[in-house]
Amino acid sequence: MWQLAGKTFNSRLILGSSRYRSPGNLRDAVKRSGAEIVTVSLRRQMTGDGSKFWDLLRELNVTLLPNTANCRSVQEAVTTAHMARDVFKTNWIKLETVGDEYTLQPDPFALVEAARILIADGFEVFPYMTEDLVVAERLVAAGCKILMPWAAPIGSGQGMANPLALKTMRARMPEANLIIDAGIGAPSHAAQVMELGFDGVMLDTAVALADDAPKMAEAFAHAIKAGRMGYEAGLMPKREFAEPSTPIIGTPFWKEKTA
Fold this sequence. Notes:
Layout: E1 2-4, E2 7-9, E3 13-15, H1 23-33, E4 37-41, H2 42-46, H3 51-60, E5 63-67, H4 74-88, E6 92-95, H5 108-120, E7 124-129, H6 133-142, E8 146-149, H7 163-172, E9 177-181, H8 187-195, E10 200-203, H9 205-208, H10 213-233
Parallel strand pairs: 3-4, 3-10, 4-5, 6-7, 7-8, 8-9, 9-10
Antiparallel strand pairs: 1-2
Helix pairs in contact: 1-3, 1-10, 4-5, 5-6, 8-10
């Protein structure tokens, strides 16, 4: 069981809702993965016919996590968040503030300022950030209980580009819910971050663009569960030298007699 922002979930996988080949493809991916939280973009729903999408969400009965995707300033992110709260009827918001157009790296200064404003306005803020420890500390000081650091730039599929920084963040933020968001390209990547003690994984591109999105979603679900179980069980430490699995001390030795 996973306690997140006052709610209880069985799955630690959060799925995005963009780039799927069809609404049915998204529906099947959510069902096969067991994901209970789905991110939605206010801007995406306002630019097209969202009626089928809303019907799909009601059918799935999932918890919605609106985002402020493509926002470039504090004011833009704050305004979008307020609009999303009115539309989606939730105080949860995945806060995104683009700082670099090439890497789509979040703007840390705008992120912290927008988070402080939104928390004062009663939002539960899920800030999308890099693996920067100082930014994480500033966000927690602003009132964030949940952080969403990337593993690598969004859509890159690289896996953990800076595992040491992520491991340090986990060690320094024991009370925060840490959810890896962006850069995960394979189920093995998801298992690795969960083995470090992260609380969940947010996915979109790696599932949505797979040849078989529902099957890939299920694969990620198994990997996330396995990684979490491994972390909770206690992984064996890495050693510099080999160590026999069968102890030698205390075992008898027989020497064959010679004529």
